[in-house]
Design the sequence.
């Protein structure tokens, strides 16, 4: 039993008046318009068009057509009481080759989106990179190459110059763990490579690219702008209290969490990570000054959380469960942790098979608050996929999703009461959309999308979340 389960809630469960109530999306998952106005392919365009990579051959060519329907979508956000919206910019849309001058039509789309949000009283929260590397940069080596980090900083400056006068909240990278280890390690994400050394090189250059981008943003933006990075930090739990299982948890914490927290927040890679991976690489791709460059002052640490990670140590030759929740592959996304087994955590599963356990979010937030007491936090993604059904009356009742979000907001409230400085919550996701390798088979949206007509219908959980967002009070989702 955790502290979050023993400590009673306050009677009101009120959130601060300036708390951000938002929803989040990603460019490739919603925009569509894949070949319009100068946009060129990203690695996800290439990956989704490669047979066998994405469920049923689905692609993001049209997605939910947000590129043409963004005004309708902003009106939905206003209807749902959101005061913030987290979106990502498509690098291929504004700088198609990943080098050189911007395409103004691409930047004009984001200018118009930001203006529409501000006119609706919704604060834009911009993410520079949500996994969609321009294909030409991948052809030149991708994130395993140092030049990609340097190009990323140039791209950051371009976007800052276009909308920096109106956007206050900036995030460099979304979930670099997925970019590095699912993209270059297990191959279940674009670009689909399966090389553990390339994955570690990619991780370093993502760290470096983050730091260089922060420097570029600081140089281009007004001084009051807030800069963050969004990490899917794993709340790692050992299967048992044995020393072997605790060692397994340490290994996953090293390559899942501290590989980012070390350089970005402390200025060094953890020594145990270097030792765990010494049989793969000597890390000579880390040049003098790199970790100092990655270690830039941040205004917020953004946290994505869905489910805990449960691990054990297995003896050599024994059967090794591999239910890590990150897709099926013969190749591991966990370099240096070949002896670690992954288990499905206890709790009711979502449609993704991920256990619902809000206590792990409480534990993660309070652990981060203790480790980095001067760094405010924001929940940049949290949500669940369920098998949503459209009723005969055209409505979508999703009480499971409302219960999931309610339980996790309770965990956030408890963590705040116990000292965690959490500034906001972004529901994943605003809209049903292209869910990466799962295509359109998994629905995370607060708003249902009919993929044939692209009609948007807020689900019952969205109506409940709107009441919470407008009032700042965590009401129980009765009758949803």
Sequence:
């Amino acid at each position: 039993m955790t502290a979050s389960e023993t400590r009673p809630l306050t009677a009101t469960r009120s959130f601060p008046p300036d708390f951000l109530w938002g929803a989040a999306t990603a460019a490739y998952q919603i925009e569509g318009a894949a070949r319009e106005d100068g946009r060129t392919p990203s690695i996800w365009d290439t990956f989704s068009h490669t047979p066998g990579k994405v469920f049923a051959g689905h692609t993001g060519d049209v997605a939910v057509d947000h590129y043409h329907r963004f005004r309708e979508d902003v009106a939905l956000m206003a209807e749902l009481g959101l005061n913030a919206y987290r979106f990502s910019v498509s690098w291929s849309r504004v700088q198609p080759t990943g080098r050189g001058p911007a395409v103004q039509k691409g930047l004009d789309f984001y200018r118009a989106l930001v203006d529409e949000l501000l006119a609706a009283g919704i604060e834009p929260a911009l993410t520079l990179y949500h996994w969609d590397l321009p294909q030409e940069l991948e052809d030149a080596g991708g994130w395993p190459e140092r030049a990609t980090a340097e190009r990323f900083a140039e791209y950051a400056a371009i976007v800052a110059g276009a909308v920096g006068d109106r956007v206050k909240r900036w995030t460099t990278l979304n979930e670099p763990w997925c970019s590095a280890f699912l993209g270059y390690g297990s191959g279940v994400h674009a670009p689909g490579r399966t090389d553990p050394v390339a994955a570690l090189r990619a991780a370093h250059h993502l760290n470096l690219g983050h730091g260089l981008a922060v420097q570029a943003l600081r140089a281009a933006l007004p001084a009051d702008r807030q800069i963050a990075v969004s990490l899917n930090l794993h709340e790692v739990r050992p299967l048992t209290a044995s020393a072997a299982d605790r060692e397994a948890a340490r290994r996953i914490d090293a390559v899942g969490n501290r590989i980012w927290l070390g350089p970005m927040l402390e200025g060094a890679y953890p020594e145990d990570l270097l030792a765990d991976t010494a049989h793969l690489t000597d890390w000579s791709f880390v040049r003098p000054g790199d970790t100092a460059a990655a270690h830039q002052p941040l205004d917020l640490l953004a946290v994505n959380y869905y489910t805990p990670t449960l691990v054990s140590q297995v003896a050599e030759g024994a059967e090794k469960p591999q239910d890590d929740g990150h897709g099926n592959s013969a190749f591991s996304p966990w370099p240096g942790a070949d002896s670690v087994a992954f288990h499905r955590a206890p709790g009711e599963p979502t449609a993704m098979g991920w256990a619902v356990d809000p206590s792990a979010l409480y534990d993660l937030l309070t652990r981060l608050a203790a480790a980095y007491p001067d760094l405010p936090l924001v929940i940049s993604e949290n949500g669940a996929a369920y098998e949503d059904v459209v009723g005969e009356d055209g409505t979508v009742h999703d009480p499971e999703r409302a219960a999931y979000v309610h339980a996790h907001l309770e965990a956030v409230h408890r963590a705040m009461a116990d000292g965690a400085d959490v500034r906001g919550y972004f529901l994943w996701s605003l809209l049903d959309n292209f869910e990466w390798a799962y295509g359109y088979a998994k629905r995370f949206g607060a708003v249902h999308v009919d993929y044939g007509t692209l009609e948007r219908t807020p689900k019952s959980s969205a109506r409940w979340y709107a009441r919470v967002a407008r009032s700042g009070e965590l009401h129980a989702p009765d009758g949803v």
